Amino acid sequence: MFGANENCESSSLISLEQFSSMTKNLWRNRDGNKHIWDMFQALDPTDKVFLVLEDLEQARKQVVPHLQEWRLREAFRQTDKDADKRVGFREFREFVTQNMENNLFLNRSIYV
């Protein structure tokens, strides 16, 4: 998961700086499936190989607590193409790639 939390094992945590670094590296490297996979795994601490809204809510609380919850829910809804309340890696990769191309992912103003 993101951030430092004394109640969590440090091996499963990444900092906001590490996440930002992965994102910037992905932007530079268009063949960034490895970086996208690393981000996906960071959001999936139990290795279920899919994300649920609760996974993203936990990350939001630790990394971008000022992000409005409704924005997170809407992003999840749009990412969950098959509406099964799970986001698999393919859906996640498509979301990240699309937002990188539109430069939305790096624009902090969308989080306010």
Helix-strand pattern, N to C? HHHHH
Using only CA atoms, what is the Rg? 13 Å
Low-confidence stretches: 1-10, 105-112
Q: Separation of termini?
A: 22 Å
Mean pLDDT: 78
Helix run count = 5
What is the class in the CATH system?
Answer: Mainly Alpha
CATH homologous superfamily annotation: EF-hand
- Second-tier CATH architecture: Orthogonal Bundle
> Into which percentage range does the β-strand content fall?
under 5%
Count every beta strand, where a strand is a DSSP E run of 2 or more residues: 0
| CATH topology heading | Recoverin, domain 1
Global outline: globular
- Our count of domains comes out at 1
Largest sheet, strands/sense/barrel: none
Organism: Timema californicum (California timema)
InterPro entries: EF-hand-dom_pair, EF_Hand_1_Ca_BS, EF_hand_dom
Protein name: (California timema) hypothetical protein
GO molecular function: calcium ion binding
Short description:
This is (California timema) hypothetical protein. 53% of the residues lie in helices and 0% in strands.
Task: Record the SSE blueprint.
Elements: H1 16-28, H2 33-43, H3 53-63, H4 69-79, H5 89-101
Helix pairs in contact: 1-2, 2-5, 3-4
Domain EF-hand: 71-102
InterPro entries: EF-hand-dom_pair, EF_Hand_1_Ca_BS, EF_hand_dom
GO molecular function, one term: calcium ion binding
Overview of this protein structure:
There is one protein chain. The protein has helices at 16-28, 33-43, 53-63, 69-79, 89-101. It is mostly helical. It has one domain: EF-hand (Recoverin, domain 1). α1 (16-28) runs antiparallel to α2 (33-43), α2 (33-43) packs across α5 (89-101) and α3 packs across α4. The longest helix is centred in the N-terminal third of the chain and has 13 residues, at 16-28. The radius of gyration is 13 Å and the shape is globular. The relative contact order is 0.14. The model is unreliable at 1-10 and 105-112 (pLDDT under 50).
